[in-house]
Amino acid sequence: MIRAIVTALALLVGTPAMAQPLIIAHRGASGERPEHTRAAYELAIQQGADVIEPDLVLSKDGVFIDRHENEISGTTDVAERPEFADRKTTKTIDGTEVTGWFTEDFTLAELKTLRAKERLPAFRPGSAAYDGREPILTFDEVVAIAREASARTGRTIAVAPELKHPTYFAGIGLPMEDAFVAELRRLDLTGADVPIIVQCFEVGPLERLSRRIGAPLAQLIASEGGPVDRPDLTYAQMITPEGLKVMAAYADWAAPDMTLVLPRDADGRTIGPNALVADAHAAGLKVVIWTLRAENAFLPAERRRGEGFAEHGDMAGYAAAFAEAGVDAVFTDFPALARSGRSANP
């Protein structure tokens, strides 16, 4: 078990350009179970995931809740709950108007009465069959799942929390950073060698966290736009060699959209790889791409199989292509398929 722990920590905080990418279960095995549920995380661990990912938003009483967004009608049964009908509202989140039910309008006790459901039922009817079975988890419950699995399996299962919309939450009187640091300290997850990777699309929170905790940090990078807290900066600027050097001053990982590493042409076919991985490694950053999904709708044209967008294509081969491109980790909804792709590149 000691060797397994040492190996896992080396993957998290060691040098770039590893031969076998880490497999990060994106919200768990979310292609097969409703995302962010115990069932999704347990299945991901069973399938060989090295890391499980919780997205973090806040409840009204300041508890970190594991949901894709603070608007929860797409991932819970809240819209079918008459006692919460009057909570439906419209808000502006990071410049986008959103209508629905929001975690910050519910206490933890109220959120715990809700049940999770599949976010993409048209693509994943098998997962949707598990709707209504699982409660919403808190961050500390996800950490407990990882720790229990580590003890049970003899391999270290890390966690990769993503702080969602910290500028928005700060603006409504629920600042994330102090609460998050306090939670990490309580869970003994602040050191440089802890099994955790903290992610965010915003820059400021990561810069400030880099001065407060030693845990590895990942700068998420979308294929367009820029960080909501830095209107003077675009993601395109951030992935230039100069931008990556700036990023390396506060982050350990560059986390680009997968199409920024293996771009696609006008017909949806893969071109590349480009220089992003090499440039990031040269700056001292490891690279994790997001998000590998098995359905044709999410794959490049040459990896699609069959006619329907919901049919599964060659995701394992796509995962192998990213391993060959030198990425250090992949986010995926299908850990078992990513693992088979990883195994093809020993």
From TrEMBL:
Keywords: Glycerol metabolism, Hydrolase, Signal. It catalyses: a sn-glycero-3-phosphodiester + H2O = an alcohol + sn-glycerol 3-phosphate + H(+). InterPro entries: GP_PDE_dom, PLC-like_Pdiesterase_TIM-brl. Its EC number is 3.1.4.46. Belongs to the glycerophosphoryl diester phosphodiesterase family. Coiled coil: none annotated. It comes from Brevundimonas aurantiaca. GO terms for cellular component: periplasmic space. It is an enzyme of class 3 (hydrolase). This is glycerophosphodiester phosphodiesterase. GO terms for molecular function: glycerophosphodiester phosphodiesterase activity. One of its GO terms (biological process) is glycerol metabolic process. CDD domains: GDPD_ScGlpQ1_like (cd08602). Residues 1-19 form the signal peptide. Residues 21-342 form the GP-PDE domain. It comes from the Bacteria. Pfam families: GDPD (PF03009).
